[in-house]
Design a protein that fits this description.
Elements: E1 7-11, H1 15-26, E2 30-34, E3 46-49, H2 51-57, H3 63-69, E4 75-80, E5 86-91, E6 100-103, H4 104-112, E7 120-121, E8 126-131, E9 136-140, E10 145-148, E11 150-153, H5 160-166, E12 172-184, E13 198-202, E14 207-212, E15 219-227, E16 238-239, H6 242-248, H7 254-261, E17 267-273, E18 281-282, E19 285-287, H8 302-320, H9 325-349, H10 360-363
Parallel strand pairs: 1-2, 1-11, 2-7, 4-13, 11-19
Antiparallel strand pairs: 3-6, 4-5, 8-9, 9-10, 12-15, 12-17, 13-14, 14-15, 16-17, 18-19
Helix pairs in contact: 1-4, 1-8, 8-9
Length: 378
């Protein structure tokens, strides 16, 4: 594809957008990535990268680097949040690649470094996008503009691309919030408790997912899912407190109490949903990840689905070339909609790995091993 000089623009340099850019550039496409943030900061959040994603990272030569900066748990434990009883012990080996838990900021930096120099543009908040049939004009808040032959929207649940294709519609507040906190693991030594590598604590109506985010295991992270009747804040998140955490998890296991006691800073994030979209592309524009199929984070597969989308879209563009983008976009949706919708549904239900089950349909999946289905076969 090195002779294909048509320009591809990607809106959003999150994990889906950055990996899409890198995969497409490795395939020889001419790609620029536009990110609204002025720069990336190492914000306090962890992320799971399962074997289904590491197989994609191998294609851009970063799988070993990701493993080197990650914790690599051998099991996903599910435990009763009140009694501590084990509900499941799910092996994370045997799916063809390593299972990683890592700091999102560390992973983001690594992925951005795989992009060609000069192709990642910060401080580019998209304000207008016009597909005139010949090319696509992009207008940014800082007054700059750009043109591209096709545009990939990887700009999250509040996607400007989605708004352009389908009109403005606020995402639905799910009735849940997630608390996020990073803990200095050294603080935990005094308790004499077993802080496992990857464990989800389940209560009757709430949970707490906990894991290490570095290979040194010096940083322990938790994220919750807690009912919250209304989201009354306009910002993406607000500060929470140790006191609020104690209230939310009153009576829960001593390990959870120790985590809360060791918390210095905790934030609270609303969890939003959208209904399945009637279309994933139109004209020269196509979407991936949360712009296309946002989901609650309860399976730890949201970013993974964006990255799988990026890999499949790249496969389809290699198959057709950018000149036949319409066929590529159709192939992409046909080959992604069923899996993305299934993961979205299971994640929103929040039952994944609660009991002993085989997760090979998730972790054993290899986007490159799947035969490309045509429209007639779908």
């Amino acid at each position: 594809m090195s002779g294909d000089k048509q320009k591809i623009a990607i809106i959003g340099a999150g994990l889906g957008g950055a990996v899409a850019g890198s995969l497409l550039q490795h395939a020889g496409f001419n790609v620029d990535v536009y990110e609204q943030a002025p720069t990336f900061a190492r914000l306090g959040a962890g992320i799971h990268m399962g074997p289904n994603v590491l197989k994609i990272f191998e294609r851009i030569g970063v799988a070993e680097k990701v493993v080197s900066i990650s914790s690599t748990p051998k099991f996903w434990f599910s435990r009763d949040g009140l009694t501590g009883d084990y509900l499941s012990r799910i092996p994370l080996d045997g799916y063809g690649a390593t299972y990683c838990t890592v700091h999102r900021g560390d992973l983001q930096q690594l992925q951005c470094e795989t992009l060609l120099p000069g192709s990642l543009h910060f401080n580019r908040k998209l304000t207008r996008i016009d597909d005139n049939g010949t090319d696509v004009h992009l207008q940014f808040e800082d007054g700059t503009s750009a043109h591209a032959d096709i545009v990939i929207g990887a700009d999250g649940i509040n996607s400007k691309m989605r708004e352009t294709l389908l009109g403005f519609e606020k995402p639905h507040y799910s009735g849940w919030v997630g608390h996020r906190a990073l803990i200095d693991a050294g603080k935990l030594k005094k308790y004499g408790l077993d802080f496992e590598d990857c464990v989800k604590w389940w209560g009757p109506d709430r949970h707490m997912m906990v894991y290490y985010t570095t290979g040194r295991r010096d940083e322990y992270y938790y994220v919750t899912g807690v009912p919250h009747a209304a989201w009354e804040f306009e910002t993406a998140f607000v500060d929470s407190s140790r006191e609020e955490m104690y209230e939310a998890f009153a009576g829960y296991h001593p390990i959870i109490q120790a985590l809360i006691e060791s918390t210095d800073v905790v934030t609270k994030w609303p969890l939003f949903n959208r209904s399945p979209l009637p279309l994933w592309s139109r004209g020269r524009m196509v979407m991936l990840g949360d712009a296309c199929h946002p989901m609650k984070p309860h399976m730890a597969q949201g970013a993974a689905m964006a990255i799988e989308d990026a890999a499949m879209l790249t496969r389809c563009l290699i198959e057709t070339g950018t000149g036949d983008y319409a066929t590529a976009f159709k192939l992409y949706e046909i080959n992604r909609r069923e899996r993305a919708t299934r993961v979205q549904s299971v994640s929103n239900a929040n039952t994944f790995l609660l009991e002993q089950e085989d997760p090979s349909w998730v972790y054993g999946y290899d986007v490159y091993a799947e035969p490309l289905r045509s429209e007639s076969a779908a």
